[in-house]
Design a protein that fits this description.
The structure is a single chain. By secondary structure, the protein is α+β, with helices and mostly antiparallel strands. The chain folds into 3 domains: 2-38 and 46-82, no CATH class; 100-129, no CATH class; 135-277, Jelly Rolls (Sandwich), CATH 2.60.120. The protein has helices at 2-38, 49-98, and strands at residues 119-122, 125-128, 147-153, 159-165, 172-179, 191-196, 201-208, 215-216, 224-227, 233-237, 241-242, 247-248, 256-263, 270-277. The N and C termini lie far apart (167 Å).
């Protein structure tokens, strides 16, 4: 009986000794991990080789995560900078391609209708200057330098002249003395007939020969009342003009000095012919 009890005690001791390490393992593992988490270097001298392996693995995993996160942020920043640079480049490229400097050839004229040297403003766009034909009446670009065509009476055959406007700002001026031959038909009715190969404007202005008389001008339909730079009354139109109601007040003599202006050519080198009578 005594030997049986002793044998039972020995077995119990043996089982206890086997179970004790198993129960201690989880505790030891937790302790190892806790030690690794709270200390940045080293472990206790009593740490087992298994604990060391676990700790190294934990550190490696932490490093991998940290490196990956850093790489992701860096990549995002680089992508953002690249996108910004691309956008700026695109914007710059678009501006360069679509810009057309004002006043240069094939680009808009400036607000006053001017262009750079060797170009001319034609219908709002700067064009290269074209060499036009020789106009034998030049220079006649203002009222003071108008070409004198002589005298023409109210019963005479019409006179005529031909010229050419070089560009939109070019003007050609002509003048003649109109004589009122009293009693001769059809009476004073100054008329201008315009023939041209392009758009332009025809104006006429009058001043009574008798300085005491004032010229009364009635502009026909399709024309507008306009004064010359010197203040002489007249009419302008984009076509032929007649003044059936012209009169010099206070006198029976309606003789007058007439000025004709051709201007506002809508292209370069616009040729024209004007037939006129008094």
């Amino acid at each position: 009986m005594t030997s049986a009890l002793a044998l039972h005690a020995a077995r119990a001791a043996l089982v206890s000794s086997l179970l004790l390490p198993l129960a201690a393992c989880p505790s030891g593992a937790d302790a190892g991990e806790g030690s690794a988490g709270s200390s940045s270097s080293g472990t206790n001298a009593t740490t087992t080789s298994d604990d060391t392996t676990t700790t190294d693995a934990s550190v490696t995993a932490s490093t991998t995560v940290s490196t990956s996160a850093s790489t992701t942020v860096s990549t995002t920043d680089a992508s953002s900078e690249g996108g910004s640079s691309s956008t700026a480049a695109d914007s710059s490229s678009g501006s360069t391609t679509s810009s057309c400097p004002v006043g240069t050839i094939d680009c808009p004229c400036d607000t006053e209708g001017h262009c750079d040297e060797a170009t001319i403003c034609v219908d709002g766009t700067c064009e290269a200057v074209v060499d036009c034909g020789v106009d034998g009446y030049e220079p006649n670009d203002d009222e003071a330098s108008a070409v004198d065509l002589g005298e023409l009476g109210d019963g005479d055959d019409p006179g005529s002249f031909a010229g050419e406007l070089d560009h939109a700002s070019d003007e050609d001026w002509y003048t003649y003395q109109g004589l009122d031959n009293v009693g001769l038909p059809p009476g004073v009715a100054p008329a201008r007939t315009l023939m041209t190969d392009g758009g332009l404007r025809l104006c006429k202005f009058l001043q009574c020969t008798d300085d005491a008389a004032e010229a009364v001008v009635s502009c026909p339909d399709g024309s507008e009342a306009t004064d010359s730079p010197s203040g002489r009354h007249g009419c302008c139109a984009n076509d032929s003009i007649a003044m059936p109601d012209f009169d010099c007040t206070g006198t029976l003599d309606d003789s007058a000095r007439v000025w004709i202006r051709v201007d506002q050519g809508q292209a370069q080198c616009v040729e024209y012919t004007v037939s006129y009578e008094f």
